[in-house]
Amino acid sequence: MARLGPWLPDVSDVPPAALAVSGGGDSLALAWLASRWRRGLQAFIVDHGLRPDSAQEAVEAAERLEAMGISTRILTLHTLRAGPGVADRARDARYAALFAACRESGCVDLLLGHQADDQIETIAMRRARGEGFGLSGMAWITETPDVRLVRPLLGVSRAALRETLRHAGVAWVDDPSNDDLRAERVRVRRTLLEGGETLKAELFALGRISGIARAAHEDACATELASMVSLSAGGWATLGHDLPGDAALAALIRCVGAGAYPPSADAVAALRRRGRAGTLAGARLLRARTAAAAGQSWVLAREPAAMDGRIEARDGVVWDRRFVLHCDADMVGLRVGAASMGIDRRARGGVAAALCETLPALWRGEQRVCVPYLGICEEEALVGAEFSFAPNVAAASGGVWGVS
Ligand SMILES: Nc1ncnc2c1ncn2[C@@H]1O[C@H](COP(=O)(O)OP(=O)(O)OP(=O)(O)O)[C@@H](O)[C@H]1O
Questions:
Q1: Is the confidence at residue 347, as pLDDT, over 50?
Q2: Is 399 marked as binding a ligand?
Q3: Nearest-CA neighbor of 301 among 320, 274, 273?
Q4: Among the four given CATH numbers 1.10.1040.10, 3.40.50.300, 3.40.50.620, 3.30.565.10, the one describing domain 17-179
Q5: What number is the ipTM of this complex?
């Protein structure tokens, strides 16, 4: 059996990972954290040549990186000029330079310092522009023909990264263009700061919800997502909350519970204030059981459907407003009901019990004979039985498009 580790791979074994470092707090924190994670790092600093101090700042950032033991190259751009659209032109030129440098150095991964606040701002900007799917924000990993872009810090707040650097004794430079109100991102950041935590929390929820909607159209694993949202991913903790704010919790309840109308604001506030398990508008709020997340983390699961669908014809049973059943076998006489409780942990294959209760199963009388999503099938004729999302899933997954 192979030995576990080593955790710091030998440079000769793996291609170097590239770091895009601006000299600002986010990407320097990325570099510092990465330097404690692995060897074989190659940092690239792009000097856009647009400000008189930029060359000197690039040299200072390079010194900070070298002090962390990271080999560093400054990529100087000579052709950029100030003027209309300079931010977009600078970004295009920066990525082109970074990609070329990665190719030259044989780097397969390019790590970027985008963090959780950037993500929230991105979602806010896309929402303001009326974009739809973009509401799930930036991807953690983006494959390009040149390199794989990796954003490992998307779950970490700007404040936490600054704190990390302070502890490590690493100085950074705040780019003055981050205060330039002509930039859309800067204006959005200002609005978010003024709007406070509620707005942030709402946008975070919206991002997740639209991710859920997209997944619902992509594959069956979306069942899990459409039926259950984990509130433990560190997102709310990042915002300093145990549970999301009222508006965000209402949006999530609507998504998971698929109610035709949003829950009342008072009911949501009461559920949140109580801080314990409860049911509202077709969704159940439960404490997560996992030991690692104990104390802080919650799950919002769909309330198990009370409805049983008796199969009268060969096909076309819609269950829980979400699923359509398909099967070649004659199933008249069976019924579709919730997979329900009592399925052995091993048979569930890691699927949470709360989610299991919301999955469709085929029942013959009191006997559960098939749970397609879990691969459980007691009758040979039913082996091909399948559920897919009902065509009205966008509506069924709960006002996904209508949350505002
Ligand atoms: N001058 C630079 N040199 C190298 N990398 C940079 C530079 N500027 C930004 N980056 C990389 O891009 C990340 C995001 O930076 P920032 O948010 O300023 O860029 P952006 O213009 O919003 O870019 P994006 O289009 O990628 O969102 C940084 O954390 C860093 O990894």
A1: yes
A2: no
A3: 320
A4: 3.40.50.620
A5: 0.94
